[in-house]
Amino acid sequence: MGDSCCGRIWVGVAFTFIATTFVLVGIICYRELIFHKETKDTRITRENLIKFYPSIFSIDSEKYEQILLDGARKRTPTTDRFQTEYECNFNCTKKLEGTSRKKRQSSNLHNHACCQSFPVILAPPFWNSISNGLREIVQFNNTHLGYPLRQIFFQEQCSQAIGCTGCTCEYVDQATTAVVYKVGYSSTTATDMSHLEIDLFYLHGCCKCFNLNQT
């Protein structure tokens, strides 16, 4: 009677062990299957660029370009005031622009003190990064796989009126990020998303008229 009871116990233990083993094997296989399914395709494609870098590539470049241009036309006057010992007065009339300039004046052209600026949209293939030298920007132009995914950037084109004595026109650099090819790879050799990375760049930002004694 004792041998029969002991045998049933061992059978139960063996059955529990086998069942547990099957469950663990099933969980491991399921995890491997899901992991493999999620990571098996890491080629540089439109879908993966949007998936890995949604904040950069998820918006259509033409729509984003229009957003940048619309933003450049919007101006918000400041309500803040401050006391100054300087005489802040410029008399810049339209004569400063010249007759040829008047004919092609547009809503994108801004005159401020001795400066004149207008927005420029760029999609450069190469750009000098802040600390890593010249980098190749990822510009996905394979139209056979859908519309191109371009990285576009907003800059101001700044110029100064000849004969201006009140200020000097200068750019204020602004930092931005871009997806680039890692060192050792290029648009012709990179095939995997692991060949890409983010880098920092300076672009010409706002065009400002600085007082001559404060530059």
What does this structure look like?
The chain crosses the membrane at residues 12-30. InterPro entries: Cystine-knot_cytokine (IPR029034). The chain has 215 residues and is of the alpha+beta class. Helices cover 31% and strands 26% of the residues. The protein is built from five helices and seven strands, in the order H-H-H-H-H-E-E-E-E-E-E-E. Strand 1 (110-112) and strand 2 form a beta hairpin. The protein folds into two domains: 1-40; 46-73 and 104-214, Cystine Knot Cytokines, subunit B (Ribbon), CATH 2.10.90. The longest helix has 38 residues, at 2-39. The protein has helices at residues 2-39, 46-52, 54-57, 61-73, 99-103, and strands at 110-112, 115-122, 126-128, 134-136, 153-160, 167-181, 196-211. Strands 1-2-5 form a three-stranded antiparallel β-sheet. The termini are far apart. The radius of gyration is 31 Å and the shape is elongated.
